[in-house]
Amino acid sequence: MSVLLGLALLAFWLYCLFDVITTPDEQARNLPKILWVLIVVLLFSVGALFWLLLGRPLGPRAPRTIFRDDSGPQPRPRPQAPKGPDDDPDFLKDLDRRLRDED
């Protein structure tokens, strides 16, 4: 039982630490982000709880952006969904051609 509690606290702490690190500097509340990182690292689960209650941004996060030369911030392009072989007309034509050559 105590092992499960320890693992749950470790998972909670890791989640909060990752959340602090990935939160943009300007969105951290009450303290600078670097201090929040130190609090979470040094105070372990109590620091993680403080982060959730006092430091985490309220409301939804802004979408992450990438910066290009002079055009300013651009939204990250979404990767294309993988296509199955049955959605690829070139694959189907090639498959049909190979099947006819075997007959």
Q: Determine the N-to-C terminus distance.
A: 66 Å
Radius of gyration: 24 Å
H/E topology pattern: HHEEH
Low-confidence stretches: none
| Overall geometry | elongated
Strand pairing plus helix content: what structural class? mainly alpha
Spatial strand arrangement across the major sheet = 1-2
| Sheet having the most strands | 2 strands, antiparallel
How many alpha or pi helices? 3
Number of beta-strand segments: 2
Helix share, percent: 55-70%
In brief, what are we looking at here?
By secondary structure, the protein is mainly alpha-helical. The protein is 56% helix and 8% strand. The radius of gyration is 24 Å and the shape is elongated.
Q: Layout of helices and strands, plus pairs?
A:
Blueprint: H1 2-22, H2 33-55, E1 65-68, E2 72-75, H3 89-102
Antiparallel strand pairs: 1-2
